[in-house]
């Protein structure tokens, strides 16, 4: 990211990548992966794929239950990213999904 002049996005990008991959690993029974793509002139896309074709649970509000140690991942993604979403994915003939978010460098 430094090569592309995106040093100011590193902390947020690391948080988002961690949340997406953590969800993929924690909530599925199979392989998971991460993809980070820079699209000039200014969009960083971070996405995680997993082997579960079911859509992710909708993000819960960040306020409220402060005692729970889980359930805030996609709420953080929603709060920190410019846009996020998911799509069904077939990888090597197996169904799954791709959950992604984007950060603008502008």
From TrEMBL:
- SUPFAM superfamilies of this UniProt entry? ATPase domain of HSP90 chaperone/DNA topoisomerase II/histidine kinase
Q: Which domain of life is it from?
A: Bacteria
UniProt xrefs under InterPro entries: Anti-sigma-factor_SerPK, HATPase_C_sf, HATPase_dom
- Where would you find the membrane-spanning parts of this chain? none
Keywords in alphabetical order, please. Kinase, Serine/threonine-protein kinase, Transferase
- Please give the Gene Ontology molecular function terms for this protein: protein serine/threonine kinase activity
Region Disordered, residue ranges: 45-70
Domain Histidine kinase/HSP90-like ATPase: from-to ranges: 13-82
Name of protein? Histidine kinase/HSP90-like ATPase domain-containing protein
State the organism named in the record: Streptomyces pilosus
